[in-house]
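Posting for a labmate who doesn't have an account.
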Amino acid sequence: MYPDNNSNSKKLYDRASKVLPGGNSRQAIYYPPYPIYAHSGKGSTVKDVEGVERLDFVNCNSASILGHGNPQVIKAVQAQAERLMTTGMPTEGEIQLSEIIVDRLPAVEKVRFCNSGSEALMFAARAARAYTGKIKIACLEGAYHGSYDHFETSLSPMPDNWGPNEAPATVPATEGLSPSVLEEVIVLPANDVEATRALLEKHADELACVVIDPLVSRMGFLPLSQSYLKMIREVTKNNNMALIFDEVFSFRLGYNGAQGIFGISPDLTTLGKVIGGGLPVGAIAGNSDVMSVFDHAQGKARVELSGTFSGNPMSMAAGIATMEQLTPEAFVHLNHIGERARVGIRKAIEKTGIKAIVNGMGSLMSVLFIENNYNNYREFGINMMTCGALDTGKAFHRYLLNHGVLCIEPGGFIFSTANTEEEIDQLIEASAGFFESLSSNNC
């Protein structure tokens, strides 16, 4: 049973805490009193250092879209490692993976690789500034876009500092940001068409780009409304602003990505996670005009983008082997099991009478112990701050850990092609057990 102070994971965590601040290098995978350490994975399961096997619905926060130990990916990586692990020369793999991305995203004509989604967002914003000649960046209140300074703003503001809804304050999400960063970011209220239109038009002469995650991961996988996305596309197109779709998560929604699902063509798209097949990767992709700022073939590029491991052969090989398996049929399966999970857990919630909602699209899902649906960060935040919703979510996470299921605390689920209907039913059954343990007046 977790937690256990005599467990191997606890011993590893104590050891790690002596040499790593906080005990590991990824804040997002820590949960108290200590995280469970992984030993191995196969298909849809991961085994910890105690030998306990669990269904893995974290899947490396979306990077392992095929599950663990996919034979074709392993074969491709082994062959590439034997041939060439890294080099100071370009390789054909970079071209092949770019061709796949260009083929799948109608709005994309050119691609440049880097090493993470955070890097991709940083370079996309820089490209937009170079292309438009403007400086400011707009993004949604409560949305996560990696660790670039300008995107470390207004991730989780509170009622006492978030300002008016029609013009949200720019609030630092971490220490260490320059005050000038806050002056260069415009924060938008999600799904408020008129307030956002007014903000964009007010700052039109200053705004280089608007960055949007069409399915907002940090808001429990909340989809943005069609009217909201269409308005932003219209205003950005009319005012020389680059529209950037952050599809580091949402590219997995379909064969043609989130932009194919929502029917919106951005100027730039940032990618990561699934396109690397489990190895580090990021990409900036877009139309030829905007992407021309990276072109160094005719002399000094307007925006320099290099990096020792950008487009490295190993990530390219793993990415190609992964993308080749992400066929239209694979997405049908992914989205089917995601919907099966959402429907089944909603039925279990209704049966037990607890206060909870289920959100998400495709192979992404959240279970939130709140009473009311929400449409933006403020409604989401107020819901999560009341009725012990966060504490209940943490208890849900711990219950599932002890019933053979790994999810993202406090209730996030990311599915893989390796998952079966039977495994989804196991998840539903385990979730129902937790719901039944709660009082019907839990909120």
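Reply:
Got it, the structure tokens are right above this. The first helix runs from residue 8 to 17.
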